């Protein structure tokens, strides 16, 4: 079902609400001179209240232009998973004649809000956003602006516009059931999102729910105030095993951390999975060259990026498109559990 688009607020409306001419409002927004501070503040108050975003393209070319820009925002540009999504998305959009403007928000709602305000001033044709949560101001701004938006990575049943992703809670729940079915009972968790909880927190919740259904919980947890990385997984595994040497399995936030944990175990001559089992999430390419196939959840970043691009372009063109598109995942048993 197509979203009902609201008309964008224009400069004339801002000027009228502030009780000034359109020229004065324009000069205020360009930081020109020739008006009082009281006038400036009055115009800026109405800009904020009405959710007006200046049009940089119009300012540069003197008229509205048909945009071929798609803004894409992800948590981290350094992540190989998000890098693969960006590569797929960019390639698919290019085939439709669009180019991307990319940003990263590091799981900060405030940083994402600032990026959205800035990108909207370029009047993009649409946005692709990957974030565990949006600020109320961001959601209101996007809805008022009426721009096509595809939220990706996490499945959102009440999206701003479109949602293309998968259920992270279910991924964690499914992995827990598999690990329990293999007989493991002293299970630990290692993650790295204490500062800015991301979607790994949803997988953890799903995992815990499955444990609680069996009257269990994590025997020990180590959630680092750090980004996910090989080193974070190595260090986190060292920390949790020094604290609790009786663990028989560790579920990691993602594959990067699981791989780090795997090499820590190897450095201490711990047999995987005989002494300690290891499970991750995300199917990182580098996991394919480990001495043992990692037990993980496979996600298709290529399919996700392509589906997001196709859904967004269909919305831009006014073509029928599902509001929610589910991208499949698959548990890969591997050899580490």
Description of the structure:
The chain is of the alpha/beta class and 337 residues long. The chain has 3 domains: 11-52; 69-167 and 302-327, 3-Layer(aba) Sandwich (Rossmann fold), CATH 3.40.50.2300; 168-299, Rossmann fold. The protein has helices at 11-18, 22-29, 37-50, 56-61, 80-95, 109-120, 136-145, 168-181, 200-213, 230-243, 255-267, 301-316; strands spanning 69-74, 99-104, 126-129, 149-154, 162-166, 187-191, 220-223, 249-252, 277-279, 296-299, 324-326, 329-332. The strands form 3 sheets. It has a 6-stranded parallel sheet, with helices on both faces. A 4-stranded parallel sheet has the order 7-6-8-9, with helices on both faces. Strands 10-12 form a two-stranded antiparallel sheet. Helix 1 (11-18) packs across helix 2 (22-29) and helix 8 crosses helix 9 (200-213). The radius of gyration is 24 Å and the shape is elongated.
């Amino acid at each position: 079902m197509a979203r009902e688009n609201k008309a964008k607020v224009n400069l004339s409306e801002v000027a009228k609400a502030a009780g000034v001419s359109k020229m004065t409002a324009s000069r205020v927004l360009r930081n020109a001179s020739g008006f009082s501070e009281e006038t400036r503040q009055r115009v800026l108050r109405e800009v904020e209240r009405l959710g007006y975003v200046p049009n940089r393209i119009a300012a540069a070319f003197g008229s509205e232009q048909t945009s071929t820009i798609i803004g894409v925002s992800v948590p981290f540009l350094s992540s190989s998973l998000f890098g693969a999504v960006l590569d797929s998305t960019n390639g698919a959009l290019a085939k439709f004649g669009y180019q991307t403007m990319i940003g990263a928000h590091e799981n900060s709602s405030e940083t994402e809000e600032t990026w959205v305000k800035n990108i909207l001033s370029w009047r993009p044709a649409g946005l692709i956003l990957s974030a565990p949560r949006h600020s109320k101001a961001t959601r209101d701004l996007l809805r008022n602006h009426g721009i096509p938006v595809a939220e990706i990575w996490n499945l959102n049943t009440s999206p701003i516009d479109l949602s293309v992703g998968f259920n992270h809670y279910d991924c964690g729940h499914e992995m827990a059931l598999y690990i329990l079915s293999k007989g493991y009972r002293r299970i630990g968790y290692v993650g790295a999102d204490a500062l800015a909880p991301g979607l790994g927190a949803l997988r953890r919740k799903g995992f815990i729910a499955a444990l609680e259904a069996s009257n269990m919980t994590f025997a020990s947890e180590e959630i680092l105030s750090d980004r996910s990385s090989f080193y974070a997984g190595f260090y986190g595994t060292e920390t949790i095993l020094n604290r609790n040497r009786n663990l028989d399995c560790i579920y990691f936030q993602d594959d990067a951390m699981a791989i780090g944990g795997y090499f820590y175990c190897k450095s201490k001559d711990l047999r995987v999975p005989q002494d300690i089992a290891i499970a991750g999430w995300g199917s990182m390419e580098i996991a394919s060259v480990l001495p043992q196939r990692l037990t993980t959840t496979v996600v298709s970043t290529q399919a996700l990026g392509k589906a997001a691009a196709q859904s967004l372009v269909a919305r831009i063109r006014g073509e029928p498109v599902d509001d929610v598109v589910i991208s499949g995942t698959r548990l890969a048993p591997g050899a580490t559990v």
